[in-house]
């Protein structure tokens, strides 16, 4: 009880000693809670697409610190010719631009029987055994007009093959594209949920079957996507998307304006076999000789997830260092305040010793006082952290304080309190009783 009396006797001093500890615990706890929630969201996002999904890109995920990124930047974008080569439809001819001329629908071979997500048994005709499905998409900006309403800078997404694997959303109204529509340049479009709502306003009508204009071109709406929600990992955000067949997107935006992507689903032989087969088909399609290195990169979702989580951990270190600096200041604050307390209470300490109190008791008294100050600071920091974390919208990030975070905070507080109390407690316990009574 005497310890609590000493702590309460000078409220300002106690408060100042708690501030540094509270801020440090607050920062440490919030940093761990947010980082843990972000990592979980990243893993869940990548898992949605499947860790075995293979992306054909220019840049390797694990290029290393000494990688020549300018050389990677000079590589060609994944193209429709690459997609057709991977599908086995024009293998060995994919480098010939004449085989697929933008806007020439007759030159495009329909993407028949594109599989639905999760159905690995459905294989696009023409694919070899190592590949289960292939999706190809390109993205650009476009304006859309309907019934006098205009939406600017919508995301125009041209798709081919099993494009459903590239998005979180699914068609919730109307229908998806037919195989013939995907393979041709049909004037058909599937709208993102928020784009459809914005065009319709408060009418609540069904926009499917209506005619809209995308960059001045008349298009028929065949479907509407479900709302994608808040996802950390998105290959394509679709809430304001205008999803059209790839050849149609080329006609609207132009071939060079589309940022393209190819995704591959491994077949029953596994990811390594799929990557080997994709490498062979891409090299053949691009006409690379045996001595030439690959001018493309094959990245898996597992690689992307691992690198993203690693980057997040590195960033979190900065926050932890700031927190440790604050804790260090808080520790010095406790030391200084306890040393002042020892000086002010020297008569009381001398009196206790004169009455028979052992040095060990004095030592423990001051150590316990420093420990309580640190623990109280941790409790205040945790309360602030809980308030801060609760303000984060659950739709953005499901951050929360766990028993592990609380245990970590109090463990840090105990260590800090004991470390901060050693010097003042030792000084108090080694006072000479006569000198202490003289003040």
Short description:
This protein is an alpha+beta fold and 439 residues long. It is built from 13 helices and 10 strands. A hairpin with a 2-residue loop joins β2 (131-146) and β3.
Q: Main sheet: which strands, in order across? A: 2-3-8-5-7-6
Number of strands: 10
Strand content: 15-25%
N/C terminus separation: 24 Å
With helices defined by DSSP (H or I, 4 residues minimum), what is the helix count? 13
Rg over CA atoms: 32 Å
Helix amount: 40-55%
Structural class from helices and strands? alpha+beta
Largest sheet: 6 strands, mixed, barrel
Which series of helices and strands comes N to C? HHEHHEEEHEHEEEHEHEHHHHH
**Mean pLDDT, all residues:** 79
Number of domains: 2
Unreliable stretches: 90-126
* Overall 3D form: elongated
